[in-house]
Amino acid sequence: MLEVRNLVKKYGKIVAVKDVGFSLENGTVGILLGPNGAGKSTIIKSIAGLLRFTGDVRIEGMPARDVNAKRVFAYVPEIPAMFEMLTVREHMNYVKQAYALDVTEEEIDALLERFELRDKQDKLGNELSKGMMQKVSICCALLIKPRVILFDEPMVGLDPMAIKELKNVIGELKSDGVTVLISTHMLEMVEELWDVMFVMEEGTIIGEYTKEDAKGKALDELFFGITG
Ligand code: ATP
User: Which domains are seen in the chain, by residue range?
Assistant: First the structure.
């Protein structure tokens, strides 16, 4: 479960996120939807502990900064960061060691296979395309077997096969009771998977819909906000 209360993030004088609050139950896929600059990435990065902010973020009831919360949490950034001199497989092993994970080599093989990285496993970080880096980043996050996972614009830059596989993965996470938060401006990519949508504009959530609420509404009506 993920709970966000009174989240405020300022960059100097710019208030990027203005008193945002929401919660997501276990096994729920939440979407942060909104135009460029609405504050989606800032919320995701704040929850992930990459930004200083005011407010309260809880993961499975624990403060997000708590080491035990970090153990059950994973984050897939919009722009993946990799170690230039580690291979794809070494990245997986790095995560395994850093989190002291009980993961077999076969499980690593299976994840690499799923994202068509098996034949790239010996490539160095600085030899990978952005899409490949994204796939490695997704594999590393899944290795943790998180209870809460955040994806920042996960579909951008992925090839169709990887998008299909990622959708399958999100469906599986959901049925395993994992809480998933996705920031996107491509609602059509996650349409069949989401449960709750938070429509954002200028740093605030201006609308919260369940899938039932959104039935019959055009995507652009949700995307551009609520009028009247
Ligand atoms: P996009 O879809 O373009 O990534 P977003 O909804 O994720 O947009 P954010 O990246 O969270 O939006 O940006 C929210 C606001 O904060 C914008 O006005 C942006 O210009 C500003 N902002 C983001 N990062 C910084 C920063 N490092 N310094 C100053 N302002 C920033």
Answer: 2-80+148-227 (3.40.50.300)
